[in-house]
Specification:
Strand content: 15-25%
Distance between the termini: 13 Å
CATH architecture of one domain: 2-Layer Sandwich
Radius of gyration: 19 Å
GO molecular function, one term: kinase activity
Shape: globular
CATH superfamily of one domain: ATPase, nucleotide binding domain
Keywords: Kinase, Transferase
Organism: Hymenobacter aranciens
Number of strands: 10
Strand order of the largest sheet: 3-2-1-4-5
Protein name: N-acetylglucosamine kinase
Number of helices: 13
Order of helices and strands: EEEHEHEHEEEHHHHHHHEHHEH
Length: 281
Amino acid sequence: MLLIADGGSTNCQWCLADTTGPRQYFRTEGYNPYAVGTAAIVASLGAALPPALPRARVQAVHFYGAGITDASKAEVVAAALRQLFPQARVTVEEDMLAAARALLGRRAGLAAILGTGQNSALYDGRRLTHTVEGLSYILGEEGAGTYLGKRLLRDFLRQRLPPELHTAFAASYQPGPLPTVLDRVYAQPAPNRYLAGFAPFAHQHYAHPYCQALVEEAMEAFFTQIITQYPNYQSHTFNCIGSVGYAFREALAAAAARHGMPMGTVLQSPIEALVDYHLAD
């Protein structure tokens, strides 16, 4: 029996599966090792696991997550999983590898993530081989939820949203006065989640020309700054996972076409394809 997790900074989707029975899905909060330690993961995940989940029967845990940038960060999560599943073989890998395996299986190609954050890589059918750095939400993450949310919040605070959108934004989010916003961005935990939380506004109001232009600019920046920097990028299809990529897949396809890149697969979540990948081993 396998337990597979696709973890972002905000939430984590899990699936308990084997080759014969039905798959069991559940969600927990996200476990980014830059934000939480082993003890906190044990406490949170231990409380969130379904009571009926047969821990002793789990033979392997495959965790893919945000913030898994090196062996030390992987060990933060792996140590927690070994405590919770002492009989299981535990592997912890970065979320980009999950995206590549879900989108491409064992085929070589280019894969991207556009959700709260942004990532991308070339994949040889087994491992990631080359990455153009997204540079996180302060320096980069073009096209991601943080990028869209930051633009929306900035234009709201500067009174640059069209009046009807300004009113709708204020009613939807009630961001408060500028000192409150600045405190939330610079002094409170998880500012990336806070900023990305405004991105759904662009989808909800996508019929408005402002939101269409905002999304088009974001996807063009993603291709110009990231995708076109890969060697021979036009020889690959463009494949993407994530809530933002899925919501704006038509804008992504238009940007890909402008840069001479054929579209491949766009998925909202990798979990189903990841389960298929591991059950095929």
